[in-house]
Every structure is written in structure tokens, then in C-alpha cells.
Design goal:
Elements: H1 2-7, E1 26-29, E2 35-37, H2 41-52, E3 58-59
Antiparallel strand pairs: 1-2, 1-3
Amino acid sequence: VYFNWLDNIQDWCISRQLWWGHRIPVWYADGTDKFYVAKTEAEARVKAEAELGEGVRLTQDEDVSAVD
């Protein structure tokens, strides 16, 4: 079984970890290719504003309620 699993491994979307109730703690700075990992949006905003200046708009991946 183990070797079969290794032979047939496929890509998967990390956001599917929501099965376990954990949202991925990554915020994206709109209009840039920058992203910030933090426990809260407030912490991510501090990091983003330190690098990009005030007024940065942050977004996070949509919450997935069901697996496709």
C-alpha cells in the first residue's frame, strides 16, 4: 500500500487542509506579487505596511466549505 501511494502521488491544493479546520494564514498585497504569513490580519498588515507603506489592501484566499 505504501509503495502504491508513493507511485501514484499527485499534486494537491494546500487549501484543502480546511478539512481539518485550518485556514491558511497567508495574506496577499493587492496589486503586487507579495504575500505575508502571520497569525492574524493585523500582524500581516504590520509586515506589509513596513515593506510597502500605509494603505496596503490585503486579501486572503476564499474559505472553502466543500472539497471538489
